[in-house]
## 1
Amino acid sequence: MTYQVKLPIFEGPLDLLLHLIEENEIDIYNIPIALITQQYLDYLDRAEEIDLELTSDFVVMACTLLSIKARMLLPKPIVEVTDEESELDPRVELVQRLLEYKEYKEKAKVFRGLEARQAKHFWREIDDEQLLKKFPPPNPIGDATWTDLVTAFNEVLERVEKRAQTISLSREEITVQNKIEYILTILQKKPQGISFYQLISHVVTKEEIIVTFLALLELVKSDRIFLRQKSLFADIYIFMTPTEEGEEHAYSFS
Amino acid sequence: MPTLFPDETKSIIEALLFVTNEPLTVKTMAEIIECPEYNIKVLLKEIKADCERERKGFCLKEVAGGYSFVTRPEYAPYIEKLVKPRLNTLTQAALETLAIIAYRQPVTKSEIDEIRGVNSDSAINTLLGRSLIEEVGRKEGPGRPILYGTTQNFLKYFGLKDLQELPEMI
Amino acid sequence: MPTLFPDETKSIIEALLFVTNEPLTVKTMAEIIECPEYNIKVLLKEIKADCERERKGFCLKEVAGGYSFVTRPEYAPYIEKLVKPRLNTLTQAALETLAIIAYRQPVTKSEIDEIRGVNSDSAINTLLGRSLIEEVGRKEGPGRPILYGTTQNFLKYFGLKDLQELPEMI
């Protein structure tokens, strides 16, 4: 018997964020970013666990949240009092996007209502064939000429060609889980450690860098690896955490 | 369905007659409304009388064992002015379908659908109704689907002597 | 065409409304009947009132810039037994995308993606396929992206008179 985990599906990262905000009854202008980020990441974890297809947009938003969280944790630089207002709240841009999205989501709800109302109105079925018998046109082709016929045929052929040319490119799915496994395999081969830049040297997409970073955070959190950095902005070195038994244990989400 | 007042039943009959262009039998209406056929018959008489008395633009007509709303014959000149332009011109879908049949005949509906990428049922019906295409046989194979080809009428209206005259495709 | 009595003009309007399932504009009716638009408007009001008073099975509705007879919503359960129900309802993603296009038109795909925070390709394709939106031009600038807007069918689908009705929706 398969056990099915029910997880609400969201239209996108903003939809998920709005849901979390509503669920926690939070003031949208004053989002407790640490709490929301945690809940957001939890959702992604669970979604990945039950194999829900999430687009990279969700991962990008996770990074935005982490970046806001980081900026809010950083001590405010001591600035001499200037004329300028105190620095901008890092959440402002996100709040703006959420508010705008929320507005359209509500409008979509109104459309849903109109759609239901209209579905109860039925239009008269008109049978043009019957009308044709009653009002036979003087000329069954109207003002069409054979040129129109050729044009129409050409258009169809062009469409066929276009359809044939459209190759569906499968999006490379990079999950945090996969990345974690990949990092652990690399580290087993390199007990001397590996640098972050080495880890992402062959990576081409922004998404994959982000996923790599998330995987590292996850591994640090579960104490499977530890990081070292010689100085500020220097390359980050990644090492496997030595286990007491001197052997590695299987990674698991918890 | 809840119990209905006669007036309400009458309105429902009107709604049913309005929405479809097929003649409706008393039996069908009685089944849908869940009421005796006798009641339907009485109400149909009333509807007919109402249309006459109020000189509506449409009247109730008994045709082919059923009932149907039809427009008053004396308004035909006005209706003609409204529908002629619509009936006269071939839609893009009909034109495309006709072009495929002309160049690929004999051809089946599913082959046409395949080429156009959409269902061509209504376009084929239009073309049949205008006698621009016709059934020219059946294809061998499962289901023995109908094969379509163009008619003499098609050649006549496009001013072609025969199919060889069809402009060659680029 | 001969000079008509107002009652006759009214009947002709009813007849015209009976043979089309697209909203008829006052202008079209006035041209066909050869009478001033003002008279048509007055008579349309009368027809609307008649339908209400007599509780006909259908009523006159102002939609998508024209007028059309549609069945009364309360009889939908009976009508659904007779004719096939309407197309599937739109998905949440399609509705969100449509809401953005309706209020922001003309708008590009990337502007829609930006607001929704996700890719809207498949939602846009669904809406194009159902003729609820269409290309209305190209935006100046790099890549000259396609601009989308809503169609007449959009107004018909949601039962709106015109786009002016939109801002009041909330």
Note: Chain A has nine helices and three strands.
## 2
Amino acid sequence: MEQQRAAGTIGMWVFLVTEIMFFGGMFLAYTLYRNAYPAAFASASNHLDLKLGAINTAVLIFSSFTMAMAVYCTQVGKRQLQILSLILTIGLGVSFLGIKAVEYHDKYVDNLIPGRLIPGRPFKPEVQAPGTPFDEHKLHLLPGASVNNVEMFFWIYFAMTGMHALHMIIGVGLLTVLLIGSIRNRYSPEYFNPVEITGLYWHFVDIVWIFLFPLLYLLGRHLAHGG
Amino acid sequence: MSEHIVPVRVYIAIFLALMVGTALTVFAALHDFPWQFNTVIALTIASIKATLVVLYFMHVRYSSRLVWVIVASALFWLAILFALTFSDYWTRSWFQVT
Amino acid sequence: MQSGFPFIPESASTQSGNVDALYFYLSGVTIFFTLLISGIIIFFVIRYRRRTPYEIPRPIAGSHRLETLWSVIPFVIAMSFFVWGAGIYFKNSRPPKDALEIYVVGKQWMWKFQHTTGQREINELHVPVGRKIKLIMATEDVIHDVFVPAFRIKADVVPGRYTTQWFEATKPGRYHLFCAEYCGMNHSQMGGWVIVMEPTEFENWLSGNANQMSPAAAGQQMFQTLGCASCHGANGEGGRGPALVGLFNSQVQLTSGQMKADEGYIRESILNPQAKIVAGYGPIMPTFQGQLNEEQIVQLLAYVKSLGSSQPQPAPAKPVVTSAATK
Amino acid sequence: MEEFKVPPPSKVNYLNAEYGLKSWLLTKDHKRIALLYMGSISLFFFIGGIYAMLIRLELLVPTGNFLTSTTYNKVFTQHGIIMIFFFLIPSIPATLGNFLVPMMIGAKDLAFPRINLLSWYIYLLGGIVTIYALLAGGIDTGWTFYAPYSTTFSNSYVVATGLGIFISGFSSILTGLNFIVTIHTMRAPGMTWFRLPLFIWAHYATSLIMILGTPVVAITILLLAFERLAHIGIFDPAIGGDPVLFQHLFWFYSHPAVYIMILPSMGVVSELIANFSRKNIFGYKFVAFSSLAIAVFGFLVWGHHLFVASQSVYAGMIFSFLSFAVAIPSAIKVFNWSATLYKSSISYDTPMLYALGFIGLFAVGGMTGLFLASLAIDVHVSDTYFVVAHFHYIMVGGALFGYLGGLHYWWPKITGRMYPEGWGRFSALVIYVGFNLTFLPQFVLGYLGMPRRYHYYPPEFQVLHVLSTAGASILGVGLMLPLFYLLWSMRYGKKAGGNPWHLPGLEWRTQSPPLTENFEHTPVVTWEAYQFAPVEEMEVVGKFGGDKAEV
Ligand code: HEA
Ligand code: HEA
Ligand code: CUA
Ligand SMILES: [Cu+2]
């Protein structure tokens, strides 16, 4: 049993290593192009919804906390609390995805979906002309930014957040299985490995977001004060 | 593997720290620091937050050496990927402008 | 065509001898080690063949001394390969200042060459013997690669930027030109000949084909028709846009820093003018991306270059890949 | 002192424990899964081999028009893709590794038997998707998928093939994960790290590469597919992307992947050299750690595929330097194997012939890799037949020879019957001769300037191409022989018994074919790896190896 438990945990850690490398490829592309096209990336970044991004960060951190509590409650055998924590975690995860969907929709409205990801709706943002009144639906280009490279940003944005969202969806699925398991009283202080491993996965997804948030939403904000 | 059970107050403390970190990073992002300090600050805060999650929420602090090694190797390989790719791009003239 | 020694191709450039020498050295080392290892193995295999079915030889644990020896010796040999190989490579990847420039555009599946004096060729390249030649290469579509075995040179041609390579032919003759990066259906037919001629012959060839407009002249024409002149002045002397006279190879003051105006920079300035703004000017220059093919861009480039370079051209630090990617 | 008993051979073993298709398709037994894998990779090897024969046939004449250029391009691409992703990468790990890793460390199974089965299904799914792509129209990008040809210009089934490779990548990740966890947590009592057979070390190193590299190629292929489907991508110059970034990401995996292919083979060869010369490996620790060193250094050299790809000159020099560094652990292995033979007792059984062949051919393949790593030479021979010869020497002369050697060596364990020794030696010889005749001329071709992936070529290269094709036919015949006699031996071969080679390894201390649980009792290991004991003791139940070896 002990060996089994160790194997499960180590297996999940090894799996998380592969996940790190998987996201690593995209982080690399991000770093490269952010360095090459700082102005375009900052302009695009400023067009993202800072408020929603920050709220989502908080939501996800909170869900990580409830997840940690779920593991804790299983370890000490508080079943009611364990179920409650799991429900909360799932709820927060779903909220995150909901907010993300709202953001995606905003981008859709502003014609910011890159390439032909959505057939018939190519990337074609309206660019704010200098001196005209601020319009939040228009792209405000900083000096030196070119629209082409803004498209690159949005592709990286959708690729990374999309991959992250996919991981969230899988995570919510795993949590649902756990929830059913705990309602059926399957886990106990002697046997909590599934909860623990799912927790590891969930926290990992949280960590990815902890990096995505500043990289995608924050860098370059200072260039357009209050923008 | 350790049977270590992390007390609830640690979790709460970490949770609060993460929230504060988030607020800080947003706050810092809206201020104009010289040079690349905006980037440095944002990434430092993110790394601290990630470290807290890894150490406490993911229990690495209380885990076997093997888990430490696994985490470290992931970071090491990520560093390889970045360092050697940039050994190309940074020595091309592409990045001459700063 | 075939040289006397059938294991190496014709050697017809200043660098081919160096590469061959290194190749012989490596071949020697390889043959030596292969024979050494095979010899040892064969000797052991015969000498220590199993004589009785159940014999158990005495175990030997190993020897740190020996193991260190056969880690250090290969390392030292390998470093000699490295130093020698990198030395030749580094030298060969710096195009000399006084080289004759030839523009190369690859497209599926042909090579177009244009001499600064206007002669155009397809799948054939005429060059004089004893002159340093620098190829400035671009592609209309996928990655191609200019490979001339007799010169021991090869470099990929990458979409979105210029790459360069150079050679100096030493022997008149006809040499294979291959495309050495897989580029689709007729990759194997995307080639032709490099024809190396005596200088006088080459002059004759040039004058025999002199009816074409030089790339710079063609570029000048486009400069007028595309409306560049409306901002940069009829002769590039400047106006709403900065002066282009003396721009090439100068140090440009940008809003975001400083940069050398090499080929890649000029290319980018035409295709993605917003990316790097000259200090003191607004981002008003329209992009010409999608309106020009690589050949036309090359001609504009040739024109801008013909407006003179302000500084004596310093040896570029990173040849072969000097170029910048376009935005 | 722990008594270790060889059980009287039971009639029940993993092969006949259960019958019926379902018992195979739903099995969680690592040995059965290994056989499932073996069947599927053999199938892919033959498909790949037929493509190889088509290549060689077409190149018999300079302007062969038995195939069109488009078809030729598809043929070599599919040859490369199938051989690499569906044959060589899973070959040893998923078959011999799957079978033997648990047995060699004294475990009942891998740590995650169900994941192991899942990995086979994933592999199969990836294979089916790829075969679908091939039948639907094929792919013509070269196995390297370089952008922008693959993203924009190719008119072939790039996305479907990419998907197949993407899927099968997960099977390799899961196998690697399973091995790592198994080796860490399931070793039998007394099986310390330095008592592990070198085969295990090699597989551990291989698994590291699998889990660290594969995800990067997975995301790369995914991005490539999007670039093709949605016309949006990080490799597209139109929006500021760099096609060379694709090459960086691709080779970040694919260079280490060549060590996924060779390390397991090196593991096999270490076993063969030691066991067929009855001698412990000279410098066990050096050989063990050199596997890890190859796995780590292997990640530092990918840029040597980009020397002429417009990579920065300085990066080229860094990668060149590091490529030479990675050669040293390989050199250590070669010399230590040779030294192991000193004052040993060498038998000339088929597996040993393959092992000896491996050393020589790998040395040649590896040292010609050094030609390629020497910048100035690579400029000339990159993308020529020199490269083709280099990697076939390592992948066929090295990796495939190791696989064949291992297959013969463990055949009695797997099937319970011996292969016919005479046929084994004969075909090893034929393969060796055919192989050299096929690929030795290609080194010369390459230096003469014959580019690779060429359908038509200048006539002066014909002589060497004819030689190569002649060799390939011999090689093809040689490779057909094992197929026949191995299958034949499954029914008519001599019964093998638990330990036909009289060896001390744990896998030999149980019956052949083994029980489903591998061992009757969990073994307790008291001996070092490759500690040979007199045959009387190996045979006598209860006085087996271990206790005697204390001396
Ligand atoms: C199993 C597969 C495998 C292995 C193990 C290797 C091993 C090595 N490879 Fe190879 N390689 C490939 C498969 C492999 N390669 C493939 C498939 C390609 C082409 C991909 C494509 O484009 O399609 C390729 C291409 C390739 C290139 C790019 C060529 C080009 O396209 O321009 C280079 C360049 O450096 C290279 C180098 C090396 C080196 C230095 C090693 C080293 O690891 C070798 C180390 C081994 C030894 C050195 C031999 C043992 C040592 C001795 C006998 C002692 C004597 C030694 C000394 C004196 C130093 N390889
Ligand atoms: C594991 C990897 C592997 C293996 C085992 C092989 C095996 C062989 N390969 Fe291949 N090869 C590659 C990996 C491999 N190759 C790769 C990665 C490429 C690059 C692709 C690219 O450029 O994208 C390549 C490219 C390649 C080329 C270059 C094509 C070109 O650039 O235009 C050639 C040319 O000779 C070739 C030949 C062969 C031959 C003759 C064999 C033989 O060893 C095969 C022998 C096997 C059999 C013959 C099968 C068994 C027998 C039968 C099925 C019966 C039929 C036989 C007869 C009728 C005789 N291969
Ligand atoms: Cu152009 Cu190959
Ligand atoms: Cu490599």
Note: The CA atoms of residues 218 and 401 of chain D lie 29 Å apart.
